[in-house]
């Protein structure tokens, strides 16, 4: 008697043209073709976004493959027939409704084909010799047929991931270099070169830098990030040229004024100042200079502040390991943001030096979302004076925002 293999699903499940296409594709598999089931499974996992399946659906596919007794998928016996209970156990205790949903997703994605029995149960009918004559369950043939396609997709995905990683590294390096070079230029008083519209300042360069950084999305493709990486690279080259030109000019000036500096260093008044002076010679007691006051500690841990405002570290020459480094770095960043000395003095008087510095770091972190850093600082200072603002909620909001971005990434 000729055996008949069903092509339609049991019960209320409908047949779609995509299912018909997948079944026709399964028929094209040469019986002699063989693939290593775990190798092709790894390529499917890598290319899951291209195939259109989730991690949970792949867990079900992993469980289905374990029911095939051989490591190599070949020949005619590629149908497995586990019950939902057995399959759920091997899928780490997946709930029945969730299991059925992910099985349907595997069928729709063309990874397996349903071979349902007349009553919807999964089983195999064996002949007199004990060999399986007809099985009802899930046909793994599409995996064998599409193994090469899965491998090609996996290679493309890996290449895209590598290109994305490279462009992200490039952006990170450019951000660090530009920030530190701008900080050096301001601290050393390096003059910037003029442009066609007039002389540019370090504040202008910093505004341009923050404008580019503000357009960098947290999650983006390589094609979206590549133009921004090019802009940052060009800006980094421009800032480096400014610093190199200044150092060349300084070297020339140093050679020309070497003799003059030698004469100045030979001034006898300088030598007198360097000699220790006794109380007897001065005719009066000399009080030791007062010890330098310790920098005020913040109410919040420094690590918490840096976790909320990591962009500030880009402007620190040797990193930020204590509050002294933090305050020094804020002193470099504040004029870049356009916060005037008067606004800064008022903020320190109302909030305290450390609290005001934390606010500056938070303003830097928010970047493009604040149109006027100076005006925003004055507004926060006024609210703090009225008791309507504190630093804590601002830090917690920044930390929460970064955590959400990490989850989306």
Oligomer: single chain
Q: Which spans of ≥5 residues are poorly predicted at pLDDT below 50?
A: 194-199, 261-298
* Silhouette: elongated
Number of strands: 8
Largest sheet: 4 strands, antiparallel
Please tell me the overall pLDDT: 80
Kindly report how far apart the N and C termini lie.
Answer: 58 Å
Given helix and strand content, the structural type is: alpha+beta
- Please give the share of residues in helix: 55-70%
Rg, alpha carbons: 35 Å
Strand content: 5-15%
Number of helices: 19
* Helix/strand order, N-terminal first: HEHHHEEHHEEEHHEEHHHHHHHHHHH
Task: Walk me through what this model shows.
This protein is an alpha+beta fold and 409 residues long. Helix content is 61%, strand content 6%. It is built from 19 helices and 8 strands. The protein has helices at 17-27, 37-46, 48-51, 55-66, 84-90, 96-108, 141-145, 147-187, 202-214, 222-256, 258-265, 268-274, 279-282, 302-308, 323-337, 341-351, 353-366, 373-385, 391-408; strands spanning 35-36, 72-73, 79-80, 113-115, 123-126, 132-139, 194-195, 198-199. Strands 3, 4, 5 and 6 form a 4-stranded antiparallel β-sheet that branches. α2 crosses α8 (147-187) and α16 packs parallel to α18. The longest helix has 41 residues, at 147-187.
């Amino acid at each position: 008697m000729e055996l008949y293999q069903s092509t339609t699903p049991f019960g209320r499940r409908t047949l779609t043209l995509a299912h018909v296409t997948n079944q026709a594709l399964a028929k094209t598999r040469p019986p002699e073709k063989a693939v290593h089931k775990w190798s092709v499974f790894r390529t499917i996992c890598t290319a899951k976004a291209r195939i259109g399946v989730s991690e949970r659906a792949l867990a079900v596919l992993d469980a289905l493959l374990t029911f095939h007794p051989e490591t190599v998928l070949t020949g005619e016996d590629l149908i497995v027939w586990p019950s939902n209970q057995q399959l759920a156990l091997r899928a780490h205790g997946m709930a029945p409704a969730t299991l059925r949903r992910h099985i349907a997703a595997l069928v729709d994605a063309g990874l397996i084909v349903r071979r349902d029995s007349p009553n919807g149960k999964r089983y195999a009918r064996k002949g007199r010799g004990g060999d399986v004559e007809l099985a009802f369950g899930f046909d793994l043939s599409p995996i064998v047929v599409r193994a090469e396609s899965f491998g090609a997709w996996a290679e493309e995905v890996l290449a895209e991931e590598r290109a994305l990683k490279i462009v992200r590294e490039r952006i990170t390096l450019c951000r660090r270099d530009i920030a530190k070079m701008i900080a050096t230029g301001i601290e050393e008083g390096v003059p910037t070169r003029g442009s066609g519209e007039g002389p540019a300042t370090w504040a202008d360069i910093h505004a341009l830098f923050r404008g580019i950084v503000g357009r960098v999305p947290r999650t983006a493709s390589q094609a979206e990030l590549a133009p921004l990486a090019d802009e940052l690279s060009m800006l980094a080259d421009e800032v480096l040229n400014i610093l190199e030109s200044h150092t060349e000019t300084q070297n020339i000036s140093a050679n020309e004024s070497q003799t003059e500096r030698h004469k100045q260093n030979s001034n006898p008044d300088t030598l007198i100042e360097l000699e220790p002076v006794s109380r007897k010679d001065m005719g009066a007691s000399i009080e030791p200079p007062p010890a330098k006051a310790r920098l005020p500690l913040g109410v919040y841990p420094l690590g918490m502040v840096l976790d909320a405002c990591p962009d500030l570290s880009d402007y620190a020459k040797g990193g930020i390991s204590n509050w002294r480094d933090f305050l020094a770095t804020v002193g470099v960043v504040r004029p870049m943001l356009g916060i005037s000395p008067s606004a800064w003095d008022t903020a320190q008087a109302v909030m305290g030096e450390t609290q005001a510095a934390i606010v500056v770091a938070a303003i830097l972190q928010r970047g493009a979302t604040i149109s006027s850093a100076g005006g925003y600082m004055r507004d926060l200072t006024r609210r703090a004076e009225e008791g309507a603002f504190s630093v804590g909620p601002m830090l917690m909001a920044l930390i929460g925002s970064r955590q959400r971005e990490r989850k989306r990434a």
